[in-house]
Amino acid sequence: MKSAVETLNPTRVRLSIEVPFEELKDSLDAAYKKINQQVTVKGFRKGKIPARVIDQRFGRGAVLEEAVNDALPKFYTEAVNEGELNVLGQPEVDITELKDGELLAFTAEVDVRPEIEIPDYSGIEVTVDALEVTDEEVEKAVQQLRERFASTNPVERAAAEGDVVTIDLEAKVDGEVLEDGVAAGVSYTIGSGELLDGIDEAVTGLEAGGEATFTSQLKGGSAEGKDAEVTVKVTAVAARELPELDDDFAQMASEFDTLEELKADSRKRLETTKQYDQATQAQERVLEELLKLAEVPIPEKLLADEVQTRKHNLEHHQLGQMGLDLEKYLEIQGKTLEEFENETSEQAIKGIKTQFILDELVNKEKLNVNQEELTEHLMRRAASSGMSPDQFAQAVVEGGQVPMLVGEVARGKALAVVVEAAKVVDTNGEIVNLEDDEDEAAETAEAATEAKADDAKAEEKSEA
């Protein structure tokens, strides 16, 4: 076999491959054997039909076609390895010559990873939020804990904001009560925004036994999106009572003896959270600067496939789980289809560039992933997926995704190298010394390569 490589552009090549006919012998034998098992010829046992009879009855062309289809992947792979090519996706193959008994010639066009020159990243400088926890933030955290320990007591008065009311609901559309529009004994905290638009105004001021009617757009069910006439009846009113903020509360709500110790722990927890956020912010901003410095050609077909994959995952997985379609999602986001497609393309380009650059850094810095690093990353991914480590590991192995996880960790280590070399300062001008968290960097790098529907979830929650 002879092969030659022609570079069409920085991300695509054409392989020209010539195969002497004798090298097709194994594939021809396999073709005759396969056809033998598929056809019947009178006078011959199944599987024992001579090759010359198959040629006469079914044509030599059918045998050659079967043999070539069998042989092409093998010779293509040999040519790729011979040319030391890092190919992406499937090739477009064209048979240019097929002479029976003499020669098979074909071309294969395929995308390849571009050669990337890693820029000098030692001069990268980014600014992140200062690590400051205010007294107001501590008080808010303690107040949220206090809310969790609130108690309710029935009252004989009109309902007010913050009260917990027990209500019955009935929704009508065009004068007809919906089958799924009736509910009884629903507990609702006035002002929480957890039910229908307009319900807070309707129940405020009502005593037990009172009712009101209001109009609201339904957020789900058989009449989703339609305006409904909703009748709400209050059957009970209860006032929420918060515990006193004192040492007794600290002992009830935590392992601490005093309120001051509880507040100190809340401050420490907030600092830890902000340290994590600060590190993530630094990694994201360093990555952004690195992407600006590097010239990375993007393979057109790879980009088109990536955009299509992102759109498919969003429409058929993420949005489907939230009960949304693309049209509703765009409405919530306030975007046109064109804006969405442009953003998806930009995200895909960023993801491809991130992977190419960090993979090149992995090779340049000779970064390896050991079993301990892979296990730690697997456990974090399992926790975020809601699966046990054993379940997640089994799914990864069965899905052949171990190399993907190894790549995530390796890219995280590459990003950590760049962050370590960068100058990170906070908004107060102070130098930020980041802890070496390669797994956290792996999550940051991976986030840059994925499309998510988190904004849709947040918007849907705020409108529910």
TrEMBL record:
Q: What is its EC number?
A: 5.2.1.8
Query: Which residue intervals define the domain PPIase FKBP-type in the entry?
Result: 162-215
Source superkingdom: Bacteria
Q: Which reaction does it catalyse?
A: [protein]-peptidylproline (omega=180) = [protein]-peptidylproline (omega=0)
GO cellular component annotations of the record: cytoplasm
Chief location: cytoplasm
Q: Which SUPFAM superfamilies match?
A: FKBP-like (SSF54534), Triger factor/SurA peptide-binding domain-like (SSF109998), Trigger factor ribosome-binding domain (SSF102735)
Q: Name one GO molecular function term.
A: protein folding chaperone
Q: Which NCBIfam families match?
A: tig
Q: Which family does it belong to?
A: Belongs to the FKBP-type PPIase family. Tig subfamily.
What this protein is reported to do is described as: Involved in protein export. Acts as a chaperone by maintaining the newly synthesized protein in an open conformation. Functions as a peptidyl-prolyl cis-trans isomerase.
This protein's name: Trigger factor
